[in-house]
Amino acid sequence: MSLFDLTGRTALVTGSSRGLGRAMLEGLAEAGATVIVNGVNKERVSTTAAELRAKGHKVHEAAFDVTDDASVVAAFNQFDAEGIDVDILINNAGIQLRKPMVEMSTDEWNKVIDTNLTSAFVTGREAAKRMIPRGYGKVINIGSLTSEVARATVAPYTAAKGGIKLLTRSMAAEWAASGIQANAIGPGYMITEMNKALLENEAFDSWVKGRTPSARWGHPKELVGTAVYLASSASNYVNGQIIYVDGGMLAVL
Ligand code: GCO
User: Fold this and answer.
1) Which InterPro entries match (predicted)?
2) For ligand 1, which residues put their CB under 6 angstroms from it?
3) Domain residues for 94?
4) Is residue 217 part of a domain?
């Protein structure tokens, strides 16, 4: 069996009814995993699940709000009741808010931190509670270029993604001895709905293409290889790392 084969494993990807999460979810399914679609919108989750089933993949649906502690706890209790073992967790759910800090309310700040950082802790905690006794688990947190560097007007997103980098190391510190590998992926500027305003802004589009050695935006599917690697036995001795899939942007001035 290939090192990268996920047959027999079950993967939950939060925020996976579209965007980067959808691409990684499908990639894990193509590598043999049973996948669990998650999102807050039940309709969108069901639509995505149907699309993946039509391609022959094994799919569960779990529409819950990762920012609501009780909903996450209830979701994992439901997985237990249905005999679903989450072997692989990708904490992907996230939102963006582009606004200068001096114009931002504390509620706006908290919403981004809750969705992009705290949710990874809560969902990771519930997954790890089940992974630890099994002696196996893969946790993959989705960071960003802003896990390393800042850009004006995206402060809460940046603070959250910086936190993701060190939360990943904290997970490795506490869970590695139990056979769990916790790592992160840092996507560069990707072609997603969240980045639509940036893609349509000629000046920003030119800046990304000029600032990125690969001279282009990334495609969500270009995260799949790294996601499958970190979800598979090929990475059993990799822990606490963040792998940037950014066309080289962070490697150069
Ligand atoms: C922005 C973008 C970025 C990208 C990505 C870069 O407004 O600068 O949304 O944050 O989405 O996170 O790695």
Assistant:
1) NAD(P)-bd_dom_sf, Sc_DH/Rdtase_CS, SDR_fam
2) 96, 98, 144-146, 151, 154, 157, 187-189, 194-195, 198
3) 2-246
4) yes
Conformation bin of residue 156: beta by default, left when phi > 0, alpha when psi is -120 to 50: alpha
Sheet harboring 242-245: ordered strands across? Answer: 59-63, 34-39, 10-13, 88-91, 137-142, 180-187, 242-245
The identity of residue 27, as a single letter, is G
CATH number, domain containing residue 66: 3.40.50.720
Asked if residue 141 lies in contact with residue 168, where contact means CB atoms within 8 angstroms, the answer is yes
Instruction: Name the CA radius of gyration of the chain, rounded.
Output: 17
253 in a structural domain: no
Nearest atom (ligand 1) to Cα of 187: 13
Distance between Cα 90 and ligand 1 center (Å): 18
The domain tally of the chain equals: 1
Residues annotated as catalytic are 157
User: Within a 10 A sphere around the Cβ of 151, how many other Cβ atoms?
Assistant: 12
Return per-residue pLDDT of the chain as tens, 253 residues.
899 999 999 999 999 999 999 999 999 999 999 999 999 999 999 999 999 999 999 999 999 999 999 999 999 999 999 999 999 999 999 999 999 999 999 999 999 999 999 999 999 999 999 999 999 999 999 999 999 999 999 999 999 999 999 999 999 999 999 999 999 999 999 999 999 999 999 999 999 999 999 999 999 999 999 999 999 999 999 999 999 999 999 999 9
pTM check: above 0.80? yes
Atom of ligand 1 nearest to the CA of 192: 11
> Judging by DSSP bridges, how do beta strands 88-91 and 242-245 pair with one another?
unpaired
